[in-house]
Amino acid sequence: MPVTPGPDFRARLAAGPAARVVALPGRLALVARHDARVVGRSLRWLATSREHTNFTYELAAHNVDQLAWFVADVAGIEHADAARYVEEIRTDDELRDAIAGRLRSSERRGLTDPVPRYARRVGWYAFVRALRPELVVETGTDKGLGTLVLAAALRRNDSEGHGTGRVVTVDINPAAGSLICGPYDAYVERRTGDSLQVLADLGERVDLFLHDSDHSAAHEAAELLAIEPHLAPGALVLSDNAHVTNELSSWSEARGRRFLYFGEQPEAHWYPGAGIGASVPRSG
Asked: Cβ neighbours of residue 195 under 8 Å, at least 6 residues apart?
């Protein structure tokens, strides 16, 4: 009959010189299980998705609720209201159908999935719904999925009598914004050129700024400096690159602002997720 080592033996083993070797099989098993999940999701994605950059996906259910709490804290609203805004875009069939139609007819449809998925952009929508900005500035239009999300929130604000805001979206590529379509395009102003020059020439007060262009630390820092003179009192500044650099947190600290961060947890996707960095003035 085999003898099971008692707790004293295991304790001595864990404290001894052989502990690392004895623990190795269990550690290998942990890594193997994790890697097997990633490989499985990667293979499924390779077989079913067309995307090659700016990946789209749904968020895990618990992560959606975490996003609502993040929005509530940053925007200074109740969690129930933030959760309502988050659910609002997730169930907006008109927006989803408009995007799906553009995706099906896009010249880049061979590299684009036909199903709209918003991921962390749901948070962008909720911020616009909560704060009701008159001017949103986004750098990095790309296909325009994020721009449409922002415009949909502005349109909903308008329908409820909360102002006719607009989003100015900037991209160096003149072909950017292929997904932008009616009726949301009425709330969008596209500008082509170097983002630093466009920001410098704005000449308007910006209520919400979103950095989502060149994801180098140097360029993000330069955009923050370029937009700073145009920020309205109380403006919200977001970075779609805060999972890579600390530029927004450093900028916020130097100006006595609060910095908060939300990290994505994609649902059944190989990509580990990005995040949202948010900078707001300190109250009081």
From this structure: 139, 140, 170, 171, 172, 213, 214, 219, 223, 226
Query: For 190-216, what is each residue's pLDDT tens digit?
Result: 999 999 999 999 999 999 999 999 989
Residue 37 identity (one-letter amino acid): R
Structure tokens at 31: 């890594």
CATH code, domain carrying 62? 3.40.50.150
How many distinct structural domains can be found in the chain? 2
Whether the pLDDT of residue 284 is over 60: the answer is no
What digits encode the pLDDT tens for the residues 82-108?
999 999 999 999 999 999 999 888 777
Cα Rg for the chain, rounded, in angstroms?
Answer: 23
Decide: helix, strand or coil at residue 183: coil
In angstroms, the CA 150 to CA 2 distance is: 66
For the beta carbon of residue 131, count every other beta carbon within 10 angstroms. Answer: 22
Residue 6: pLDDT band by 50, 70, 90 thresholds? low
Residues 6+ apart with CB under 8 A from 84: none
Distance CA 129, CA 121 (A): 13
Longest Cα pair distance anywhere in the chain, in angstroms?
84
- At how many degrees (to 10) do helices 145-159 and 121-131 cross? 30
Under 8 Å CB-to-CB from 62, ≥6 apart: which residues?
265
Asked if residue 136 is part of any domain, the answer here is yes
What range defines the domain where residue 87 resides?
49-281
Q: What are 245's two structure tokens?
A: 């650099």
